[in-house]
Specification:
Structural class: alpha+beta
Distance between the termini: 14 Å
Strand order of the largest sheet: 1-4
Number of helices: 2
Largest sheet: 2 strands, antiparallel
Number of strands: 4
Number of domains: 1
């Protein structure tokens, strides 16, 4: 389960986030490329945009479900 106290600092404010346990497997990027991206040095990923539509929320949910390290969280 993602740790909200260990959020990647680049996450935009909101209920969805990636924490520091991310192993950079890139599976989440395949599910939600319109919401999640790399940080500047490509050592982690973060939410650059919070979901705004049902489709985006579904993409964020799929990204959370495929994450092997459970690094994606939803505080909503």
């Amino acid at each position: 389960m993602a740790d909200r106290l260990s959020k990647q600092p680049e996450n935009v404010p909101g209920q969805w986030y990636v924490d520091t346990s991310c192993a950079l497997c890139r599976l989440c990027l395949e599910e939600a490329p319109n919401l999640i991206t790399y940080n500047r040095d490509e050592t982690a990923v973060h939410f650059f945009k919070q979901p705004e539509t049902p489709e985006e929320t579904a993409a964020a949910q799929r990204a959370m479900e495929v994450c092997p390290t459970l690094a994606i969280g939803n505080d909503g």
